[in-house]
Design a protein that fits this description.
Blueprint: H1 3-16, H2 22-34, H3 37-51, H4 53-65, E1 68-73, E2 79-84, H5 87-100, H6 112-130, H7 149-153, E3 161-162, E4 168-169, H8 171-180, E5 187-190, E6 193-195
Antiparallel strand pairs: 1-2, 3-4, 5-6
Helix pairs in contact: 1-2, 1-3, 3-4, 5-6
Length: about 200
């Protein structure tokens, strides 16, 4: 039995105290030999829920209060995502991303992390396109890209397209935006305005 498995069992013993007899402890050690650490931790959480429902509820509430999410812009225009999600939100997040982060065959050269990042982008874009997110300052959430005709043509000396905040993006990225949005190009309504 490894250190992490022993730690999970000791933690359960600490939480339950006298409610764990030698027989139950031996059962957990047997689980540790047969299952992965992840499955053993799940077994320990189930054991805690059964033997100490009140303590389990308190721990669940405390764990829920630990949740946080931060999206931070990096100097190169990329963004860093970091956080801790509660079990239900984490499960929903994984279910949504896993459904979109599928390997698409031999031509798909993305690693798992890249597929997950692309899945998150696809999920977010889908929700933006649906138009059902709450409005902020009377406007539904959207991404505005500022560019010029010269920039779209790729002419030498043309300014790069910009995202909100002034982050420059490549011509190729701008041209791929309609495809990312399900193939719908924006209609020009006038300078500085567009409708999806």
């Amino acid at each position: 039995m490894g250190y992490q498995a022993a730690s999970a069992i000791c933690h359960l013993r600490e939480q339950l105290g006298d409610r764990v007899d030698a027989e139950r402890e031996e059962e957990m050690v047997s689980f540790a030999r047969r299952f992965s650490v992840e499955h053993l931790r799940i077994c320990c959480r189930h054991a805690r829920a059964v033997a100490d429902p009140e303590g389990f509820e308190k721990d669940s509430e405390r764990d829920f209060e630990r949740r946080w999410l931060e999206v931070s812009p990096l100097l190169d225009g990329m963004h860093s995502v970091d956080g801790i999600l509660d079990p239900v939100t984490g499960a929903a997040f994984r279910a949504a991303l896993d459904s979109l982060a599928v390997w698409r065959g031999p031509d798909d050269r993305r690693n798992h992390g890249q597929r997950m990042a692309d899945a998150l982008g696809e999920l977010l874009q889908h929700h933006l396109d649906e138009g059902r997110l709450p409005r902020k300052n009377g406007v539904r959430p959207h991404i505005t890209v500022n560019t010029t005709l010269e920039g779209l043509k790729g002419e030498l000396g043309a300014a790069a397209a910009e995202l909100p905040g002034g982050t420059p993006i490549s011509r190729k990225t701008v041209l791929h935006l309609p495809a990312r949005r399900g193939g719908r190009a924006a209609k020009r309504l006038g300078w500085g305005r567009a409708q999806a």
